[in-house]
Task: structure prediction
Amino acid sequence: MTPDNQVPALRVVGLSKTFGTKTVLRDVDLEVRKGETVVVIGASGSGKTTLLRCVSHLEIPDTGLVDVDGRSVGRVAIPGGWKDASERQLAIQRRGIGFVFQRFNLFPHLTALDNVAIGLRRVRGIAKKAARERAAEHLRKVFLTDHLDKRPAELSGGQQQRVAIARAIAMEPTIILFDEPTSALDPELVREVLDAIRVLAAGGMTSVIVTHEMSFARQVANRVIYMDEGAIVEQGTPVDLFGSPREPRTRRFLEHFTTPDAKAAP
Result:
């Protein structure tokens, strides 16, 4: 039996997805180790977001398997085989997956504190006081201690995204998926969100991050994956992939990010 610390946080085998006549994912295999930060890059339309959505079964893959911490997502074992998970079973399986979207999806009538606490109460069944204490702790991790009682309309876009990140980590998932977490932000607000993610990654958070921020990818990733036309074309350490990519498609893509500004920190 494989020791728990060697079971990958995420294992994807043969994941494919088609919308109409367009194949968006093509037989994708991926493993993410516990504590690893994997950054996925590629042009718009290359399948990055669909990969995250299929991992979490927000989109149902046409083929392929997804395991989180050694447990299946999207299917359940039955005598003699497997069957598709029900909505209730899938909701339980998704507890191992945090998801931070491009848009913040906060409840506008709740404070930052209660936006984070509500999932702890309703999903985890934690008492109100304990849930709010835990929510405050996670908001502190993303530098929002002074904004606990503010509603989303009173927060900047960067602050709202950090509330969304605190909400995800508060549920203590096995892995967190970030789908271009800064794409909806004004440029001056991007750094504060990326700084929060950097701190969490340094603390051992396991994550897959889709981003167009190349300098951030260089700094935070343990591994960078380049996708094109629904497939993983190349992957490696930031030094290897950015410094000496093997594949012509990877080199052509990265040529767009070779200006001095692209090499500077965001």
